[in-house]
Design brief:
With 608 residues, this protein is mainly β. It is built from four helices and 32 strands. The chain starts with 26 loop residues before the first strand and ends with a strand.
């Protein structure tokens, strides 16, 4: 079984361990914010490697994440349409999205969720997805889980990449990266751009013929500086500028367009004390999102949201079998178009780990948050992982609580047509209580790994809209289900990856299933390394039928097939091609919005 090493950028100067043999175990950091073998992690976590990203040939992160168990997307029109994620039925606003550990959820949106439509896959080294409530370490919005996108690392050796491709719908894409420096200071810079003529956002099968285009430019970089043998620092930044044509209510053709500019920058100071037993990271982070919409070149909407985060995290390896993590955090958010006031959350958290029994890892922790508007929240978590080395069996389980602070829009909205003169002063944080139990089994001399997980989570005080209070805590939801994952080395050159998720997500107040959460979803890919130079892969993505209910019209179930091929024509130069929607399936993710027909793309990639 192929192994990977996954080191999270939250600890920016951890020394990576390279995987050169099957007996080297995968290392992750997302679940605890410090390095530990995956066999010690008591939560469901998936890591997507740099090799996986390259071979997928996907232009956007959302397309890569659709292959992950428990993760689903809905987009109101391809190429720039608003794209929202759900993890195990939890909404986009209940999921924390990070780039290099910097939170990028859009504070100016109604619920504070993140729009994946403009997240280009270029310049990314790794993605880690942590499912289930994670508020103890990541605070508000982490009830459903955490997705951390780690960009390419800086390096002292001068090297780089370049790529270009073109294809259906007038797609032109290109970019590259450059890194280098010395042992004391080094850098990485990545640039990517895409232009697409597009298709109609409103489904062409409903008589919509206007083509809606899309453009995006993304630049991101890292600079690392070694100040001494134990102290180092980093500066990280990212900028994205996109323009998206979209359609009107119906949906139907309309002359509308929008621009989104996203920016983030962070400075980090890292110190290893007491012979590396005490790791310390101090971060100062800023992110912002600017949105502007037009109809026939007349501005119809404009907003800007920003977040400032000051974060200290420490991990102390105590004598014996104990470890202690601890941290404090200050987050300030503001939306200029909604309020002159800033909204603040101050937090303190700690988590202890114990490994005094062979192959068993236990953690327990608690977090306290105080919001200047709605008050305080306490969040606990327990995890356990037990590895039976002789049988290749790992058992893991966890229980935890999560919370989601009301968004600025929800805290400031005044429902004038309801007869109100002020926002709801009694609005509380959304809360969740969830647990999971899983078993991971290696078979046939570790050539096959099967993972089965049962999860259940209850959400209360969910914020909805009422005509008596405006935004109010009126909803309750329960999600539960099963995830099955198979990874198999069928031969030395053929690999199968497959997963299936059953999700029963129910609105307990309305006594009906949640919108846009398929009960059944699956993904399977078989890949063949035909030689050291030639790679071929074919995949199937299945999304089950979503029944109509209330205001939702539902969508039919669908299966989409895709193919990829790449060939290294000479050292460090690879040509690649793909066919999306091989069988030209007509399907929709959201009722009334179209998706691309069969499409073809080809390009070249070079390393130097």
């Amino acid at each position: 079984m192929k192994k990977q090493i996954s080191i999270l950028a939250l600890i920016p100067f951890a020394v990576p361990v390279m995987a050169h043999a099957d007996d080297i175990e995968e290392i992750v950091v997302t679940a605890s914010r410090y390095e530990q073998p995956i066999s010690n992690v008591g939560s469901s976590i998936t890591a997507i490697s740099s090799d996986d990203l390259i071979k997928s040939q996907n232009n956007f992160v959302q397309d890569i994440l659709q292959s992950v168990s428990g993760v689903s997307f809905n987009q109101n029109g391809s190429f720039g349409g608003v794209s929202s994620i759900r993890i195990r039925g939890a909404s986009s606003s209940q999921t924390t999205i990070l780039i290099d550990g910097i939170k990028i959820n859009d504070v100016s949106s109604v619920g504070g969720g993140f729009d994946f439509a403009n997240l280009d896959a270029g310049g990314i080294e790794r993605i880690e997805i942590l499912r289930g409530p994670q508020s103890i370490l990541y605070g508000t919005s982490a009830m459903g889980g955490v997705i951390n996108i780690i960009t390419k690392s800086a390096s002292s050796d001068l090297s780089g990449t370049a790529h270009t491709e073109g294809g259906s719908f007038g797609t032109i894409r290109g970019g590259g990266s450059l890194r280098g420096g010395s042992d004391l200071i080094n850098f990485n810079l990545s640039l990517n751009a895409i232009s697409v003529d597009g298709i109609s956002k409103a489904d062409e099968n409903d008589g919509n013929i206007e083509v809606d285009g899309y453009k995006n430019f993304t630049a991101q970089g890292k600079v690392k500086i070694k100040l001494s043998d134990i102290i180092s620092m980093a500066i990280l930044s990212r900028f994205s500028d996109s323009k998206n044509d979209f359609d009107g209510f119906g949906p139907k053709d309309a002359d509308k367009s929008g621009t989104i500019k996203e920016f983030m920058i962070a400075g980090r100071l890292h110190a290893d004390l007491f012979d590396g037993r005490l790791q310390n990271t101090l971060s100062l982070e800023h992110s912002s999102t600017k949105r502007r919409n037009e109809t026939k070149n007349i501005q119809t909407y404009k907003t800007k949201g920003s977040r400032l985060n000051i974060d200290y995290f420490g991990h102390f390896k105590l004598e014996g079998d104990f470890g202690l993590s601890f941290g404090v955090q200050h987050e300030r958010t503001k939306v200029e178009s909604l309020s002159k006031e800033s909204f603040n959350i101050n937090s303190i958290f700690s988590e202890a780990s114990y490994q005094g029994i062979e192959a068993l890892t236990l953690t327990a922790g608690v977090r306290y948050d105080h919001h200047n508007e709605y008050g305080s929240t306490v969040t606990p978590r327990l995890t356990a992982s037990y590895m039976l080395a002789n049988t290749g069996t790992r058992l893991f389980a966890n229980w935890g609580e999560g919370f989601k602070a009301p968004s600025i829009f929800q805290l400031t909205y005044i429902c004038g047509f309801c007869g109100l003169t002020k926002p709801n002063p009694d609005l509380k944080a959304e809360e969740s209580n969830g647990w999971e139990f899983g078993i991971e089994q290696s078979l046939f001399e570790q050539s096959v790994k099967v993972t089965a997980t049962y999860f259940q989570q209850n959400f209360k005080n969910l914020i909805g809209f009422s005509f008596t209070a405006g935004y109010d805590n009126i909803d309750k939801v329960q999600t539960k289900g099963i995830e099955l994952i198979v990874e198999a080395d069928i031969s030395d050159s053929i690999v199968l990856n497959a997963n299936y998720t059953y999700t029963n997500a129910k609105d307990l107040i309305a006594d009906e299933r949640l919108d846009q959460v398929p009960a059944n979803a699956a993904f399977a890919q078989i890949s063949w390394a035909a030689s050291d130079l030639l790679f071929i892969a074919a995949s199937l993505t299945y999304n089950g039928k979503e029944e109509p209910k209330g205001y939702s019209l539902g969508v039919d179930g669908w299966v989409r097939a895709d193919m990829r091929i790449s060939y290294e024509v000479r050292d460090n130069i690879t040509i690649f091609a793909r066919i999306d929607n091989v069988f030209n399936k007509e399907y929709q993710q959201i009722k009334g919005y179209g998706t691309p027909d069969r499409s073809y793309f080809a390009g070249v990639r070079a390393n130097f």
